[in-house]
Amino acid sequence: MENMTLTNFLSVEEVARLSRVTPRTIRRYLSLNKGPVVTRVGGRVFVQRSHFDEWISKNISSRKAKL
């Protein structure tokens, strides 16, 4: 099993920063079950880095920008 240290977890704010969206958007995704898998610790929500990476790779869309 993977080593479960705090450095392997991201806060909602860190997920938002890495995703380039607001924390509110991430919370909305989580409430709609469209976000990454979460772990709750003492009422706080965290995302394992590996789950974040998987979620991002599944949700990348490549489209040409319309200019």
Describe the fold and architecture.
With 67 residues, this protein is an alpha+beta fold. The chain has a domain of 45 residues. It is 40% helix and 16% strand. A three-stranded antiparallel β-sheet has the order 1-3-2. The longest helix has 10 residues. It is globular, with a radius of gyration of 13 Å. Pfam families: HTH_17. This is Helix-turn-helix domain-containing protein. InterPro entries: DNA-bd_dom_put_sf, HTH_17.
Characteristics:
67 residues, alpha+beta, three-stranded antiparallel beta sheet, globular, Helix-turn-helix domain-containing protein, HTH_17, DNA-bd_dom_put_sf
List the secondary-structure elements in sequence, H or E.
Answer: EHHEEH
Gap between N and C termini: 47 Å
Bin the helical content. Answer: 40-55%
For the biggest β-sheet, the strand order reads 1-3-2
Mass-distribution shape: globular
Short description:
The chain contains three helices and three strands, in the order βααββα. By secondary structure, the protein is of the alpha+beta class. It has a domain at 6-50.
